[in-house]
Request: fold
Amino acid sequence: MMRFFKIISILGFQFFTFVILATGQNTKVQISGILIHCKFKQASLYQNGKETTLLSQAIIDTNGKFNLQTEVKNTNIFKLQFEDGMYVSLIITPGEKIEITGDIEDFMNTLTIKGSIQSELIYESNKQLGKFKSLQDSINNVYYKGMQTGISDSIVKVLTDEYMKIAKLQDDYIIAFVQKNADYITCLFIIDKLSIDDYFSSFDYLDEHLFKKYPENLYVQNFHTRIQNAKKLAIGSLAPEISLPDPDGNMFALSSLKGKMVVIDFWASWCGPCRKESPNMVRLYNTYHEKGLEILSVSLDKTKDAWVKAIKDDGLVWHHVSDLKFWQCEAALTYNVTSVPYTVLLDREGKIIAKGLRGEDLIKKVDELLK
Reply:
């Protein structure tokens, strides 16, 4: 059941971001709107970036109408903000004439944007993602009600399978959207609903297109940097070297294990889930070591005594290294480790073939590959 909860917490979360892209050659931009049941008195346009800059403001009259004008030199991300923290994220291109309408009492569902095909695509995609979320929420409701009244394992499996089916449909929708609209900055607001580990090719495809079209855009630059760094850890990439002291103070290198299948295991003595995972790791090692498996455990400990004691207490008889720098562990930073336990599985050539597997999932994968 813990796996089911994890799926829900990750895939069930959705964002509502409204984006406007425009086309045109001049630098003048006009944003007009009619807001029903409007309680706001002012609309303010900010440019996002390293610093948030106020570009223009307009009064909202008693009928909810406003008309805001400014100049924009390059396509970029902006924020049209009202009081009480409500705002609409915009991507504006010079020359755009934008019309916004909506009912403030149900703004998410009634917001309408005209004047940009790309804006309409964003609105359309958010509506579709909302449908996926509603289906997932329905499954969650059935599950939680069942937990209160009693629910069989077979029903849980049916619910889990259905939830995963919807999640796959959502992923397929996003992948198709990115493939079709890879020249649009709007994709940046959608693609992060995908797992970069599972769908790295889609991230790489988008980066190739956006960086070519908008090389000076800060958001595109940040995305480009992120993707270039991720390439070093992508499935199929050669795993970055790890060279750290073992418990005896001798340097041990990951590359010395080339020719073996390797599980890089990031853990710590102070990590409860890591210690609970120890029996699974022991079983994994005992079952597959003679068949060519090695484990390199990288500890995020702060003190040597606690680290060595945990190794002994849990019976972890394989290779161990640590620089005792806690979350600033050199290897953890290289591998973008943000939580433990975390594993990276390497083939005999030292290439990454899986990430983030634990327990039975890790054992199953190793068994499959070593067969």
Remarks:
- The chain has three domains: 2-13+123-231, 28-111, 243-370.
